[in-house]
Amino acid sequence: METCRVLSIQSHVVRGYVGNRSAVFPLQLLGFEVDCINSVQFSNHTGYPHWKGQVLNCSALEELYETLKLNNCLKYDYVLTGNIRLIYNLILYCYCRDKLMLRKMVEIIQELKQLNPNLIYVCDPVMGDTWGGEGKMYVPEDLLPVYRDEVIPLADVLTPNQFEAQLLTEMKIASEKEALASMEKLHTFGPSTVVISSSDLGHSQALIGYGSKISSSLIFLFFSTNGAKTQRIKLEMPLIKASFVGSGDLFAALLLAWTHRHPDNLKLALEKVISTMQRILQRTLDAAKGMIAEGETPTFKELELRLVQSKVDIENPEMCVKAVEL
Question: How many CA atoms lie within 13 A of 222 on its CB side?
Answer without folding.
Answer: 14
